[in-house]
Amino acid sequence: MHFARNLVIAFAALVATPALASPVGTWELEGKDTRFQLEMCGDGTQLCGLLTWLSDVDYNEQYKPYLNRPMADHMNQSGPNRWKGDIKLFGYNLSGTLTQRSENHMTLHGCAVLVICKTYEMYRYTE
């Protein structure tokens, strides 16, 4: 009896994914040239975000029209620390997933037409 109970407890510990700190805040792409502001929206479990900052490197000039525009709009929570939905990134419409890996690390994965995919690492930005 104790074996079965311990087995159930061990299995529950393996499949349980801890909830991390809120994804709300400013996140910066790993290149430190782009920042997004994320917030909970809709029913409080959906994730929305804006492109809020671009560095002054030359290649960012083409992305300035997307500043202060939505990049994630009502992405639905698809599991603990994970949201799926439509992403508008630098003029491209993508089907995407945001996965919070730790308190300060998130992965953004987006695909256009399900064959052209890109993954970005994002880190919580604090001044």
Describe the structure.
The protein has 127 residues and is mainly beta. The protein has one helix and eight strands, in the order αββββββββ. The protein has one helix at 2-15, and strands at residues 25-29, 34-41, 46-54, 70-79, 82-89, 92-102, 105-112, 116-124. Strands 1-2-3-4-5-6-7-8 form an eight-stranded antiparallel beta barrel. The longest helix has 14 residues, at 2-15. The relative contact order is 0.17. Residues 2-17 have low confidence and may be disordered.
Question: Which terms would index this structure?
Answer:
single chain, 127 residues, mainly beta, 8-stranded antiparallel beta barrel, 1 helix, 8 strands, 54% strand, disordered N terminus
Brief rundown of the structure:
By secondary structure, the protein is mainly beta. 11% of the residues lie in helices and 54% in strands.
